[in-house]
Design goal:
This protein has helices spanning 16-30, 45-50, 67-81, 91-99, 134-142, 191-204, 219-228, 245-250, 265-272, 285-288, 303-315, 317-327, 336-354, 356-366, 370-377, and strands spanning 2-6, 34-39, 54-57, 85-88, 107-112, 128-131, 150-152, 178-182, 209-213, 235-239, 253-256, 277-280, 296-298. The protein is α/β, with parallel strands linked by helices. It folds into two domains: 2-156 and 335-377, Rossmann fold; 178-333, Rossmann fold (3-Layer(aba) Sandwich). The strands form two sheets. A seven-stranded parallel sheet has the order 3-2-1-4-5-6-7, with helices on both faces. β12 (277-280), α10 and β13 (296-298) form a beta-alpha-beta unit. α14 (356-366) packs antiparallel against α15 (370-377). The two termini are 18 Å apart. It comes from Paraburkholderia madseniana.
């Protein structure tokens, strides 16, 4: 198949959407498909080239003034590649792909990576829509996307080409006992809850240290909060780290206090290093932790329970060892090969159902016939899950 992946950028900044796209493109090229990534670029171009994936510069922005240029650029790309599948990972790319061609020779597959955004509903423009967890799938059905046009392919990072052959980078020697989180500095990531929980924990475990790996617009506010809570001396804001494996490997407990999380890749990464994990029971997090078998789940917005759970795992060696062992089990479920296979299956079935090339050929021969143009845009009546 000839496949085009669309995203706003290809920067190595810890963006889970981009990381999933890069993994897919590399695995699909490895399987013998002709794969193109179209984005504003930013860092992954060399990796893509090494895996036989071409990168085409196609800036994508929701600003109305840029729509004509994006449409023209996308049409040139389609004319050059003649894809079988266009896979849009972000809203802008999905809308441009849908609106740029009335008589398409390709099918449009969209992935909903973050259901907390209202704009996620616009991903329904795809001939088939993919959710990255069962929780996201349920939310998309609630918003009106027919089950017959929806599949779930759960995220995974095991075997990612982004880290293949790369040694674990050096990192500062962490103090112990320590709690580590790897997360963007956003209020919705529950960083404030984690800081409040750690302030309570420090009274029970005075020598505990907290490491926050990540950056974002709320970092200054979180640093100020740490000072207000009296834990600034025990809290280290490490900033963004492209490869956080060294931090994960040294963590006594990994914590993720998100208020919503579709299917956080970092949970796979933490499990791969055999970390003890505490995370909130929201979104797709329970699915990433085998419904609590591979990590302890706590309510969101509940610093007291989070603190008590962290304290238990920092002080109870038996509970700590048992949970660490379970975290490292069943990791095949989260392999990038499984993710790629799932998407390829969806591509094939969507092509078979929609038959876009047949409709495009008829439309080309017959001219602009409204009925045929409508058939080109029609969604399949039924698609099975991968």
């Amino acid at each position: 198949m000839k496949i085009i992946h669309l995203a706003n950028h290809a920067q190595s900044v810890g963006n889970g959407i981009v990381n999933v796209m890069i993994d897919l493109a590399c695995l699909q090229a490895r399987a013998g498909h002709d794969v193109t990534v179209a984005s504003a670029g930013g860092g992954f171009e060399n990796l893509l080239a090494r895996h036989g994936v071409r990168h085409v510069l196609l800036p994508q922005s929701p600003r109305p003034s840029r729509v004509p240029g994006m449409v023209a650029g996308f049409r040139r790309l389609v004319a050059q590649v003649d894809p079988d599948v266009v896979h849009a990972h972000m809203m802008t790319g999905a809308l441009i792909a849908r609106l740029s061609a009335l008589r398409r020779r390709f099918v449009l597959v969209t992935t909903v990576h973050n259901a907390f955004q209202r704009s996620a509903t616009l991903m329904r423009v795809g001939d088939h829509v993919v959710a990255v967890s069962d929780a996201v799938g349920v939310e998309m059905v609630r918003r009106g996307i027919p089950r017959t046009r929806l599949s779930v392919v759960r995220n995974g990072t095991i075997g990612t080409p982004r880290l293949a052959g790369m040694p674990v980078p050096a990192a500062p020697q962490l103090a112990h006992p320590c709690v580590v989180t790897v997360s963007g500095m956003y209020e919705r990531k529950g960083i404030g809850d984690l800081l409040h929980a750690f302030a309570l924990l420090s009274k029970r475990v005075p020598d505990a240290v907290l490491y926050l790996v990540g950056d974002g617009p709320d970092r200054a506010a979180m640093e100020a909060l740490a000072g207000q809570l009296g834990i600034a001396g025990q809290t280290h804001f490490e900033g963004f780290v492209a490869d956080p494996r060294a931090y994960l490997a040294q963590a006594d407990v990994f914590a993720l206090a998100s208020h919503y999380e579709a299917a956080g890749l970092v949970l796979c990464e933490a499990r791969e290093t055999g970390r003890v994990i505490v995370a909130t029971r929201v979104g797709g997090i329970p699915e990433m932790l085998d419904d609590g078998e591979a990590g302890l789940l706590v309510p969101a917005h509940d610093p007291v329970t989070l603190s008590e759970t962290l304290g238990l795992l920092l002080t109870d060696r038996v509970a700590h060892a048992a949970l660490a062992a379970r975290a490292a089990q069943n990791l095949d479920t989260f392999s990038v090969q499984r993710v790629s296979n799932g998407y390829l299956s969806i591509y094939e079935r969507t092509l078979a159902r929609c038959q876009p090339r047949r409709f495009a050929t008829i439309a080309t021969r017959s001219g602009s016939v409204p009925g045929i143009a409508t058939a080109t845009l029609a969604v399949p009546d039924a698609l099975h899950k991968p």
